[in-house]
Amino acid sequence: MRIGQGYDAHRFAPGRPLVLGGVTIDHPLGLEAHSDGDVVIHALCDALLGAAGLRDIGYHFPDSSNEFKGIDSRKLLVRVMALLLNTGWVLGNADITVVAQAPKLKPYIELMCHNLATDMNADCGSVNVKATTTEGMGFAGRAEGIACYAVVLLTRST
């Protein structure tokens, strides 16, 4: 078994959709990024890659490459899972915490779990997404952006 941890954060920006866990969220601001800015998937990819000893998301999908400009991060997650499978790893489970003062994410959590499980070819029970605020503290608490933490367990494929 291998454990990986991932983190990502992006600031809010006008004129962009807010995408988290592959779900477009109803909010007036999106996240500034080279890709779609999906901090949930970016943190998850870093956790998966880290557990497998395969560096990080920036190494595999650099923001200096036009190939990844505006890309749907779900496509990156599918590619990360293919890398894991090719090196003999499968997902045991993933636990994800989104840190956002706003918007409220409860209505979107189930669909996020479904999207992530689908893209990782995993059972929905193996993917847990939860959301929290920081009670007004820090950049997330001031509603300047959103952060996400992810922890995964990988096991050897049989």
TrEMBL record:
CDD domains: MECDP_synthase (cd00554)
Cofactors named for this entry: a divalent metal cation
Domain 2-C-methyl-D-erythritol 2,4-cyclodiphosphate synthase, residue spans: 1-154
Pathway info: Isoprenoid biosynthesis; isopentenyl diphosphate biosynthesis via DXP pathway; isopentenyl diphosphate from 1-deoxy-D-xylulose 5-phosphate: step 4/6
GO biological process: one example: isopentenyl diphosphate biosynthetic process, methylerythritol 4-phosphate pathway
Pfam families the UniProt entry points to: YgbB (PF02542)
PROSITE patterns xref list: ISPF (PS01350)
Reactions catalysed according to its record: 4-CDP-2-C-methyl-D-erythritol 2-phosphate = 2-C-methyl-D-erythritol 2,4-cyclic diphosphate + CMP
Alphabetical list of InterPro entries matching this protein: MECDP_synthase, MECDP_synthase_CS, MECDP_synthase_sf
Domain of life: Bacteria
Alphabetically ordered keywords of this record: Isoprene biosynthesis, Lyase, Metal-binding
EC number(s) given by UniProt: 4.6.1.12
UniProt function note: Involved in the biosynthesis of isopentenyl diphosphate (IPP) and dimethylallyl diphosphate (DMAPP), two major building blocks of isoprenoid compounds. Catalyzes the conversion of 4-diphosphocytidyl-2-C-methyl-D-erythritol 2-phosphate (CDP-ME2P) to 2-C-methyl-D-erythritol 2,4-cyclodiphosphate (ME-CPP) with a corresponding release of cytidine 5-monophosphate (CMP).
Family, similarity comment: Belongs to the IspF family.
Name of the featured protein: 2-C-methyl-D-erythritol 2,4-cyclodiphosphate synthase
Organism placement in taxonomy: Bacteria, Pseudomonadati, Pseudomonadota, Gammaproteobacteria, Chromatiales
